[in-house]
């Protein structure tokens, strides 16, 4: 089955904020972060159900080299990216994002 990947505006903002933070700390590191995020998104698009379902049907993919995870949900042939968040972020932040979906 071919899936369509949709990135929420909130997840896009998460990615931008992390990019700028890494880029400010070390030039080029933000670019490396984006490469890893894109790699994770491509993997999810190819094999969205490889990760187990968690809270309210969401799944997570841990980004390589960075302490971030991609939170997403699969519905029919759609993959909705809900958040790209730091692994130490308060779980309530993530659950509020999921509940508003």
Mind describing the biggest β-sheet? 4 strands, mixed
How many discrete structural domains? Answer: 1
Strand-residue fraction? 25-35%
Span between termini: 24 Å
CATH hierarchy class name:
Alpha Beta
CATH topology value = YaeB-like fold
Spans of 5+ residues with little confidence (pLDDT < 50)? none
Radius of gyration: 13 Å
Structural topology:
Elements: E1 4-7, H1 9-25, H2 29-46, E2 58-62, E3 68-75, E4 78-86, H3 91-99
Parallel strand pairs: 1-4
Antiparallel strand pairs: 2-3, 3-4
Notable features of this structure?
single chain; 101 residues; YaeB-like fold; alpha+beta
Give an overview in words.
The chain has 101 residues and is an alpha+beta fold. The chain has one domain (4-99): RelE-like (YaeB-like fold), CATH 3.30.2310. The chain is built from three helices and four strands. The chain has helices at residues 9-25, 29-46, 91-99; strands at 4-7, 58-62, 68-75, 78-86. The chain has a four-stranded mixed sheet. The mean pLDDT is 94.
Summed up, what is this model?
By secondary structure, this protein is an alpha+beta fold. The chain contains three helices and four strands. The protein has a four-stranded mixed sheet with strand order 1-4-3-2.
């Amino acid at each position: 089955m071919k899936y369509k990947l949709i990135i929420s505006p909130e997840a896009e903002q998460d990615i931008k904020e992390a990019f700028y933070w890494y880029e400010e700390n070390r030039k080029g590191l933000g670019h490396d972060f984006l490469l890893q995020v894109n790699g994770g998104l491509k993997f999810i698009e190819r094999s969205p159900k490889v990760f187990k379902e968690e809270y309210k049907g969401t799944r997570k993919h841990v980004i390589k080299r960075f302490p971030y995870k991609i939170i997403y949900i699969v519905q029919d042939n759609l993959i909705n990216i809900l958040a790209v968040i730091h692994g130490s972020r308060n779980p309530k932040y993530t659950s509020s994002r999921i509940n508003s979906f």
